[in-house]
Every structure is written in structure tokens, then in C-alpha cells.
Input
Amino acid sequence: MENTPLWDDGRWQALPSLRENVEADVCVIGLGGSGLSAIHRALELKQRVIGLDAGMVAGGAAGRNGGFVMAGLAAFYHDAVADLGRERASAIYQLSLEQTDKILLEAPEVSRQPGSLRIALSDDELEDCRLEAEALRLDGFAVEDYKGPEGQGLLFPKGSVFNPLIRCRTLALSALEKGAQLFENSCVIDVKANHVHTDHAQISAKYIIVAVDGRLELLLPELTGQVRTARLQMLGTEPTTEVSVPRPVYLRYGYEYYQQLASGSITLGGFRDKAKETEWTKDIAPTEFIQNHLTSFLRNHIGVQAPISHRWAASVSYSKGVLPYFGEARPGVWAIGGYSGTGNVIGALCGLGVVEKAVKGSSSIADLFMAAPSGLN
Output
């Protein structure tokens, strides 16, 4: 089964792999959205920066996700408030709204803000939507009750979408222009304070940052139990006029998600829970079981019969608690990840915060994401 995301236009010019020893102030491992955000922040702090990836820029989940730019953590807002407290949950949500605006400016030609929908598929879920809306309104955040062709639930006016692969590649090219050294196909074998060993070279750096989401616990085994890798699967169709989906849709507690691109193509992901334990895997090959669920939903729920042109999957990591992992995993080695399937915005924030924490010693972003409140997890 093919494994190419609909987002890939095939025009990327591969970057070189690292073949000789180098030195830098900051070394960022992982060239996805969080790693590239970290690289840009390091450049703003006047650091000499090296970034590397075992594959290609945004070759993992950063370039293979659903393209949703959503505010807040993976946990719905009222659940985040319950776990983190209102002040902290509100601060994170507000930061994510501000970061959304910045993300849309990074690659405006492939970004838009039509609003987004959370649709309930049961009475229990509809009640959960009511609780989320109540909590958001209490803290002054915009949300509207919604009932329309997609179903009933909530409308988030600032919900946005983008082409995640092109956005990351735009960031990479911009980082190169600003003086960063970036390397693809450079697999990290070992990482410790001030040193990164790849399959062909060594890097000496003052600050080491691991910005890897899926398979994070492979590179840093000590994080096993704090993050866990899962496979998320998607499909995409040929352009169609059978339906009109003006806003991205997130439904069944977020297990399914779809949108219609400007071209008319539908992208759809979900049903990870239907396979139970088998999707807790580091394998990134699409499976017939999940793809059949996606196909059935496309045909019978969304009502699209257009040919399916792409099927793909990616690894993401889920954190143990409400917050992603953010910390000094080893002495001198900072790591971020475990975005629980919603890393486009939160990952970017963590990328900014981890560089500030490592280089400057303090960061208001890090303060929000690092230590979990007493009793969490």
C-alpha cells in the first residue's frame, strides 16, 4: 500500500546529509514543526545552529498530519482546566491562539482560517461539547454553538488549516537563508551533553535539543512510560464537487477529522481506537483494517465517492498526562514531544520555549509546560 501524503507536491530538493564533524551553539534533532520553530528561535537569539533529521524535513508526522491548526492542548479545554487549573490552562490556550496567528503568516499561501467544527456523534458527546463551551466562555474565549450539515456541536472561529508539509519546508528554507545548517538523512546514534553522534559524523554543541515526537522513546529510552508512540492513518481523494465542506471537522472526541482542500480534495484521518493495541506501534505502514474504516466513513458518512488518490500514516507520541513532555531528559539534553496527536501549534510553542530555557535559562513558555501540577499523572 502506498504511503505518500496528499500534501507532497514532489518538488522538494533534498538537503545534504552530515558527513563531517561540526560545531555549533545549538543542535536541534528533528526537522519537523517543533524542531524548526526551535531553530528559528535560536537564530533570533544569535546562536550558531545545526539541525538534523533521520529522514527528510517534515518527513514524519509534521508533514503527514491532517493540517489542522487548533488552539489548546489535545485535552478539551474543560478537561485541561480540571487537570491544570484555570489559570494555567487559560494561559496555554491564549498562547496557542497567538501562535496560531503567527503560524498562518509563516506560509500564507497554504494557510487559511475558516473556523473549525467539533461535531458530536452521541448525546454524551454533545453534553461534553456543552461543558467545553461553558468553560471557554467563562474564560473569555470565542466559541459558538453549531448545528448544520455536518451535525451538531461547536464552532471555533479561529480554527485554521494549512498544508503542514509545505509550511515546514518554508520554515526550513527560511532558516537556511538566516544561516542555520540543516541536514537530512542523518540518523542520530547517541546524544549526550555537548555531543551528538550520527551514523557518519559528530556534532559538538553547547545546547542539545531533541524535538522528535513519534518514536521519541527510541532515541531517549528513559522516556518510556512518559510518552508512547502510536500510528495515525489518513487518506486523500481526487478533487470532488460532491460535497462542500467549508470548515475542517473534528468529531467523535477527535478520533476522526477531515477537511476539504481548495482543490476540492477531501483528507480524512482517524479510527485509531478501532484497532486497539495494534496501533500502538512504531510501524508507519498504512493497514488494510484502518484504511477500510476510513474508506467506509468517506463513502457513507461524508458522502464522497471520488477515487482515493493517497493513503498514508505517521508516528506520533502520546504523553502520559495532559501536558506534552518538556524537560531535560538527560544532563544537558533537552527534549520535547508527546503532543498526543495535536502538535502543529503546541509543538511550535514547545520549540520556542525549550530553546529559551536551554539558552537563556528561563522561559515563560517553559514555565507553563514543564512541571506538572501536584497530583497530575
Observations:
- Residues 76 and 132 are 7 Å apart (CA to CA).
